[in-house]
Structures are given as structure tokens and as C-alpha cells.
Amino acid sequence: MDDASSSILAAAREILATEGQAALTVRRIAAGAGGSTMNVYSRFGGKDGVIDALLIEGFEQLTAAMRAVRTTKSPVADLLRCGVAYRSFALSHQAHYELMFDRVVPGYVMSERAHTTAVAALGTMADRVQIAMDAGTIRRGDTLATATVLWAACHGPVSLEMKGVGPPSTDWAEVNRQLMAAAVAGLSTGPSR
Predict the structure, then answer these.
(1) CA distances from 118 to 34, 54, 101, 123 (A)
(2) What is the pTM of this model?
(3) What is the pLDDT of residue 189?
(4) What is the C-alpha to C-alpha distance for residues 164 and 167, in angstroms, rounded to an integer?
(5) Cα(103)–Cα(114) distance, rounded to whole angstroms?
(6) What is the pLDDT of residues 110-127, one digit of tens each?
(7) Percent of the chain whose predicted confidence (pLDDT) is above 70
């Protein structure tokens, strides 16, 4: 990526973080990057290309956060730690996370490459699910479907937390932990099932 492209993405990140998705216009991005709108069009094809680049960046960072969870002899504990990593990523990258999951940019359609990167992030969770299935700690099945259940268990509480839903005293870290634990227990092959 050349310097002009990097500047465009840096400007888009800043606008996203400080003003939200609605402020992501070609003119605002170009001005923030200190260049012309033609730079945005020639390097990214317009606003949708910049949004794609931000989505790809966000999903790659989420993938890296979950991959950073060390694999241990306890696949169930590893899955639970992936849930913690997911929440940590979301809270430390709120603007990106909201763009990734609550896209409100009118007319934007996710590109195939951005979609593939999003699916790869889910695939990271599926890899951990496969390890747990192979170890016999959760029941066998479609790893991607099972990973989607766990992804939903991660996404729900963090989305509510970020939107400020629920009593102010809510311990969202505990809600996240309990929901992930319940989801994993529901998939368990152990006697409690």
C-alpha cells in the first residue's frame, strides 16, 4: 500500500472513530488525508472501497485477537478465552466493530473480499471448535454452524454493552462469561448434558 492509500485509510479511521459511519464521505476522507477526491476514487474506487478496506482490517484484527489465544490442553477453556478475546477486541475497537456488524452506510454492499475476510474470522472460531470436537469435549457436528452459535453468544452481550442497554450496574464481562459457558456446556459431551 502506498503512502497516499495509507493516508486515506488513516483519515477514514479517524473519521469513523470520532464522528461515526455517517461522516464517511469521499470528500471528508480526502480532506482528512490531505488529498483530492480523485485519490480516493483512483485508489479505492470510492467510499465503498474505503469501507471495504476498513472492514477487512477490522475482521483481520478480530481474527488475530482470537488466534492470539494460546491453545492449551483444555479446548473448552480455550473456547471461553476466545470469547474473552472477542469482547476485548470489540471494546477496544468500538468504531470498527460497529462498522463490521452494524453497518448503516446507505447503499453500501460488502464486497466478496470483505465477506471472505469476515468468514475467515468465523473460521478461526471454527478451528477451535474442531479441536474441542476432536478432543471429545463438545459433540461432533458442523464446525462452522457450531462456531456460529458461539459467535452469537459473544456478539449478543458485547453489542448490548456497547449500546448501553441494561441496568448501569450490569457486569458485562460476567454476562459474556456466563453466556459463553452456557453455550459451550450446551454443546458438551459430558455427563451434565
Answers:
(1) 30, 12, 10, 9
(2) 0.89
(3) 82
(4) 8
(5) 13
(6) 999 999 999 999 999 999
(7) 98
Domain 1-45: give its CATH superfamily: Homeodomain-like (1.10.10.60)
Q: What angle do CA 136, 140, 144 make, to 5 degrees?
A: 120
User: Rounded distance, CA 56 to CA 36, Å?
Assistant: 24
DSSP letter string, 153-170:
HHHHHHHHHHHT-S-TT-
Considering the segment(s) 47-186 as one domain, its CATH architecture is Orthogonal Bundle (1.10)
Residue written as grid cell 480455550 = 78
What are the b/e assignments for 145-172, b being 16+ CB within 10 Å?
ebbbebbebbbebbeebbeeeeeeeeeb
The per-residue pLDDT for range 159-170, each reduced to its tens digit, is 999 999 889 999
Residue 188 bridge partners (DSSP): 138
Delimit the CATH 1.10.10.60 region(s) of the chain. 1-45
Residue type, 171: D
CA-nearest of 88, 154, 151, 90 to 119 is 151
The CATH 1.10.357.10 portion of the chain extends over 47-186
